Structures are given as C-alpha cells and as structure tokens.
Amino acid sequence: MNEVLVDLLARNAEHAETFQARFGDVQDAQHPEAVTVCCSDSRVLQDHIFGNDEPGHLFTCGNIGNRVVQRTASGEAVSGDVLYPLAHTGTKTAVVVGHTGCGAVTATYDELTEGLSEPPGIEHCLSLLEPHLEPGVEALPDDVGRAGAINRLVEYNVDRQVEFLVASDDVADDVDVVGAVYDFQDVYSDRRGEVHVINVGGETDVATLREQYPEIEGRIRRLWEY
Fold first, then answer.
1. 69: phi then psi, degrees, rounded to nearest 5
2. What's this model's pTM, rounded to 2 decimal places?
C-alpha cells in the first residue's frame, strides 16, 4: 500500500477522534459565516490560517490563483463554488486570499511577458487570470525586480477578484467582500503566516482603510498603491 495514503488515513483517524463530537449542529445544514477563496498552494492551509477548527464555520474554496471567475457559455461569471454559500446558505462575508510568491500569478506573468507551454488544464486556469492581470503587468514600476513584481501582481490579482465580486449582479449588495494576502515570505512583516488586509469592498487606499477600520489598523498593509 502507498505509504503516503497510509499516513493520510492515520492522520484522518486522529482527526475523526477529535472531531466526532463537533458535527451535531451541522449534520443536516450549514450556515457558514464566511466563504474564503484561497490559492490551492500546499503552503496555504485555509482553515488553519484563520485558526478554524469548527465544522460549518467557513466555506472554503481553493484553486490556483484564488480565482472567483468562471468562464461560461454567456461569458465570465462568479464561480459557482464561491457563489453557492452567498446564494444559498446566508453567508454575508467573502474573503479573497492571495499569498506571497504565488505560482499561478508567476506563471501568468511569465505567460504575458515571455509565453509558456502548459498542459491544457493549467493553460485554461491561467487564461482566466491573464485578461485581469495584463493591465497590472503593464503598470508595474520599472525599478522593481522579479520577486517584487510577482508580489505586487498578487495584490493586483486579489483586487481584480474583489472587483469582480462587487460588480456582479449575482452577489447581493449586503455581502462584505474583503481582499487579503497571506505572507509566509517576510514580505509584509517578520510574522510569517499573517494575513494582511489590502482591500475592502473595492477600497484599496491604506490610509482610508485604516481610518474606516481602526480595530484592524495594524493588519492593513499594501506593497503597491497604483
């Protein structure tokens, strides 16, 4: 038997022992307080980054590039996995979480600047990011290095995903949409693993956000105010 699978099942046995008494209130229905949209990067542990160990508390969506955009026959739409809790479970908070050094953003940057050859599935995912990131690539400062460019585009991507949610007729006006970046590379601070808020409802000006939300003033940071 595959040793990785054996280890995963052993870890799951520990999980089941710990969690068996925590499903009583959510076995038949869910009403999560927030939907989080994170990159599926293995270094981004969606529930753990928010200290969540409560079934039913967070509706977690993951994909490369923390995208909320889905391509349909009629054009781009809010991805169904993101929209479901907003439309059907009473969830009123959506948090889009990018992360430092994002591989999907890096690949999109390389595709836009140099061209890449990827398998069709990856190419499709990148094609959902490209039109939204291309203006950001063009606006990058001339004096920023590659790593700095990528991390600025991480913010730019989060901003575009937030913008898409806010503008969508499918997302109710009373849904709070927040954009953030998870940092494990000492880019925003020396506290690896912190989430930094960069966008609330489309507002990206740091001074304005800190004035509006003084209770999280120290967690509001941006690398790039373009």
1. -95, 135
2. 0.96
